[in-house]
């Protein structure tokens, strides 16, 4: 038995820029602002940074960032693929590097001007991570169409309804209404608004889709020992996992025997194996919500309920504050900001520090997940 | 087998209709060649006979690098479907109410093809009333040659 990640490292600092449909500054500037803020939050000098991790889709790189913020000599840098599936893995890679002595102060970040920029699917030349020759000629153009297919099948197999998807959208919107930094702050959602909203890809409507956001976030990972001397209460990386199931095909996962059990199941098995805790011990969850149906699928995958029970799980206010599993307490990708899930990591840290704008009383354990449907990752954080 | 489809460096937006044409990779090229002959074929292992889709260089069951292309009946059932609405690429937005479906093949339930349900091989993508779409509905393949010269499978209801 080799080294374990369990509680060996901690998130010591978090930082973010404002979130808006359009911000004037460049992605590079936004990235630097978020990273400098995260290091300041931790009380660690930028010259101490020796590791970086981000997404392969991140367009600012460690060379530019390190030069701009005045980082020291870097001894670890890594990138994780598959868009929002890589969010938690950035922290996991830093945790692994620090736990094994490859580095001592790691920064993970994501900066994205998705609000200002073009819609990625409009580029007809790029084949994206999906095998486009089998899908795009038939007008299955966008991630919303690809996930809409899974959603329709899920609704058919398990009797899930649009009301279940509304429960997800509403929980996220209600938390955003408590979070002044959220794009949907002071913009309440009603069932009537949801049920009469325009379709994007039927069965998914406007409110089943995440926001288009400009913004950046970062966090700082150090050893647990170092974290205890930092400015903020440490948030320990208790367990971490990536997940790419056998025979999985990317976001278009129609060619496995069972397309409704996606990467979440694989990541979950490894996550719980490395933890002293189980789903029943999770106080609050930040579950990747590019589209509402990812929530019931993830609830099943991470073991909060059985197969086919994810939709019913959302009933009775279960995802609200005071419910069985408070969800996406900053508003999530649906209502706070869509920055490829990085805001879910930082919100998990806020919950375990006790500083969320929608604080779950005495929250001590938080699950954070990356995108379901694509090769994914997850973190189990504890205070 | 030499792919008869155009090289991948071309601009594949079909200038006539604006619909996207398939951009085949090396493994997928034979599928489109057979489609051009009106045949629906799926890659199969030449050693253990396991079908696989999408095509790939090696059999995931027995690791054989030897493959053949097995002709399918063209019959299947709708596994799921969506009705995409704007924002869309213009050529698709011009066919409001069009559908995209997934068909599970009758002989190989794990193999599912994305396509369109239409009333005839050359009918518009929105030719079927969306109310007719139903998971489980039996369908059969037909072949449509797009204005760019590439032939794609499309699907008709067995009981229109
Ligand atoms: Zn074989």
Automatic annotation (TrEMBL), chain A:
Which GO terms of the molecular function aspect are on file?
A: acyltransferase activity, transferring groups other than amino-acyl groups
What Gene3D superfamilies does its record include?
A: 3.40.47.10
Provide the protein name: Lipid-transfer protein
Q: Give start and end of each Thiolase C-terminal domain.
A: 257-375
* UniProt-listed InterPro entries: Thiolase (IPR002155), Thiolase-like (IPR016039), Thiolase_C_2 (IPR055140)
This chain's source organism reads Streptomyces platensis
From TrEMBL, chain B:
Q: Which residues form the ChsH2 rubredoxin-like zinc ribbon domain?
A: 32-65
Per UniProt, residues of the ChsH2 C-terminal OB-fold domain are 69-144
What Gene3D superfamilies does the record tag this protein with?
A: 6.10.30.10
Matching entries from InterPro entries are given as: ChsH2_C (IPR002878), ChsH2_Znr (IPR022002), NA-bd_OB-fold (IPR012340), Thioester_dehydratase-like (IPR052513)
Pfam families, per this entry? OB_ChsH2_C, zf-ChsH2
User: Which SUPFAM superfamilies has this protein been placed in?
Assistant: Nucleic acid-binding proteins (SSF50249)
Please name the source species: Streptomyces platensis
Could you tell me what this protein is called? DUF35 domain-containing protein
């Amino acid at each position: 038995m080799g080294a374990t990640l369990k509680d060996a490292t901690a998130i010591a600092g978090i930082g973010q820029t404002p979130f808006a449909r359009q911000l004037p500054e460049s992605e590079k500037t936004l990235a630097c602002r978020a990273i400098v803020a995260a290091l300041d939050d931790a009380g660690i000098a930028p010259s101490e940074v020796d590791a970086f991790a981000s997404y392969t889709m991140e367009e600012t790189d460690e060379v530019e960032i390190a030069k701009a913020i005045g980082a020291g000599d870097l001894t670890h840098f890594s990138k994780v693929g598959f868009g929002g599936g890589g969010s938690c893995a950035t922290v996991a890679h830093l945790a692994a590097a620090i736990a094994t002595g490859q580095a001592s102060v790691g920064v993970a970040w994501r900066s994205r001007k998705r609000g200002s920029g073009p819609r990625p699917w409009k580029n007809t030349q790029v084949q994206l991570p999906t095998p486009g020759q089998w899908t795009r000629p038939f007008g299955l153009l966008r991630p919303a169409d690809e996930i809409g297919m899974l959603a329709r099948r899920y609704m058919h197999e398990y009797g899930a309804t649009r009301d279940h998807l509304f429960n997800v959208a509403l929980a996220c919107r209600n938390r955003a209404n408590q979070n002044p930094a959220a794009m949907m702050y002071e913009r309440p959602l009603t069932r009537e608004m949801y049920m009469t909203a325009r379709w994007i890809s039927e069965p998914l409507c406007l409110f089943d889709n995440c926001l288009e956001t400009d913004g950046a976030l970062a966090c700082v990972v150090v050893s647990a020992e170092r974290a205890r001397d930092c400015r903020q209460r440490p948030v320990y990386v208790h367990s971490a996992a990536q997940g790419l199931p056998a025979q999985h095909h990317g976001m278009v996962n129609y060619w496995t025997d069972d397309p409704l059990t996606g990467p979440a199941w694989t990541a979950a098995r490894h996550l719980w194996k490395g933890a002293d805790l189980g789903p029943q011990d999770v106080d609050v969850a930040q579950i990747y919500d590019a589209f509402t149906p990812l929530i019931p699928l993830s609830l099943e995958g991470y073991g909060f309920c059985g197969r086919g029970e994810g939709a019913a799980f959302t009933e009775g206010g279960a995802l609200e504050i005071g419910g069985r599993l408070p969800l996406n307490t900053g508003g999530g990708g649906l209502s706070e900001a869509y920055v490829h899930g990085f805001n879910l990591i930082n919100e998990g840290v806020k919950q375990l520090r006790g500083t969320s704008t929608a604080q779950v009383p005495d929250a001590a354990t938080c699950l954070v997940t990356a995108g379901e449907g694509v090769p994914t990752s997850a973190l189990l954080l504890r205070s | 087998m030499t792919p008869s489809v155009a090289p991948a460096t071309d601009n594949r937006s079909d200038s006539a209709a604006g619909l996207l044409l398939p951009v085949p990779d090396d493994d997928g090229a034979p599928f489109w060649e057979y489609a051009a002959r009106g045949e629906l074929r799926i890659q199969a292992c030449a050693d253990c006979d396991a079908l696989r889709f999408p095509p790939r260089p090696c059999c995931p069951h027995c690791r054989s690098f030897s493959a053949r292309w097995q002709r399918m009946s063209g019959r299947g059932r709708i596994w799921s479907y969506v009705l995409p609405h704007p924002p869309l690429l213009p050529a698709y937005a011009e066919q409001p109410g069009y559908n995209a479906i997934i068909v599970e093949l009758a002989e190989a339930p794990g193999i599912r093809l994305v396509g369109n349900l239409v009333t005839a091989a050359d009918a518009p993508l929105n030719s079927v009333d969306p109310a007719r779409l139903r998971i489980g509905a039996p369908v059969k393949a037909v072949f449509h040659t797009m204005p760019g010269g590439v032939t794609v499978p499309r699907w008709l209801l067995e009981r229109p």
